[in-house]
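Input (Addiction module antidote protein):
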Amino acid sequence: MNQLKGVVSHHEREIAELRADRELAVAYLKAAMESLDDPDERAAGLLALRTVAEAHGGLGAVAAEAGISRESLYRSLSPKGNPTLKTLLAVLKTMGMRLSVEPEHQAHA
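Output:
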């Protein structure tokens, strides 16, 4: 396979951008969390949380700081994952974030 020098994967670039810009990471995660409401889009939301955790020092470091096993975090933040509220809160706290509640956007008739 021919390797191109200087080529960075989309995922690596995404992690670098999220690591460099905290406001971007918060906005990215906020949009992703909205997708958790839809079972058909839940995988994307979990993968976005995983990407932000990777940008925050890696899943191993986040898991250790959150007090959960790395394997458990990998499973929880996989496309078919189903993190507990405790895990979700611990991961967000480790990254200096927290959950918040907003009213659902409804179209006016």
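The longest helix spans residues 42-55.
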